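Notebook, student rotation project (T.W.).
Task set for the rotation: take a protein with a known small-molecule partner, predict the structure of the complex, and write up what can be learned from the model alone. Partner molecule chosen: zinc ion. Sequence and SMILES entered below by T.W., checked by me.
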Amino acid sequence: MPELPEVETVARELRLVLPGLKIESLTAIYPKSFENRAAQYSLTQTISEISRQGKYLIFRLDNTFLIAHLRMTGVFSFHTGSESTGKYCRVLIRFTDHSQLQFLDTRKFGRIWHVAEISEITGQLGKDALDPYWTEKTFSTALNASRQGIKALLLGQSVISGLGNIYTDEILFASGIHPLSISATIPARKKIELFQNIHATLRFAIGQMGSTISDYRTVNGESGNFQNYFRVYAQTGKPCPQCARPIQRIRAAGRSTHYCPYCQKLSK
Ligand SMILES: [Zn+2]
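Predicted structure of the complex:
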């Protein structure tokens, strides 16, 4: 599932092609993929800006917004001419200059919403993991306030948004923190290390255009490269890069979680 680095890569590529284009029509080929919550506004507006909050992409129009979540397998594909749509095209946006944006989604869990206010969709989200709001201090304070397991807190999106299963496993390994550690009980210097590794890992992964495991592709149809740098994610049984003992898999926060029981310390 695309996480912050993949969605940020898509946002950066859409930013190169979409601003200034005027929508001529939006067709929901698979009706559930599109929800028009602002039907009183016409969709024939100009896209002025592309931003991202957590795993959501936000397209600013003249009066309203389109918000997209790629979920498992959503991919945006931009074409300067009128391409025919393939089997997996769920939403087709045509522009007045004859270019088009296709939303492809094999599993059909992805969504695009048309809304008057961004907060209708993202109102419950915590600050984005790369938002300048986060400092060593604000991050430590947020952890101190929680008795949740650290993996659950990082995945939950209501405290900090954008992280999913892959990057959470990698960041906790880099920080030497057991995924089931109770957030508040993690030693103070480890909380700061965790904060620093969130930034370092996400920045590096964005530089690699994210991770491609199955469907994720950039707007230009390219794969990400960060999957070549996984140290624990999907490495069950392989030697830990630090101590050479086997990487193990457990359930944490309802998700398959990969970690090294020797290098990652449990606090509770
Ligand atoms: Zn280890």
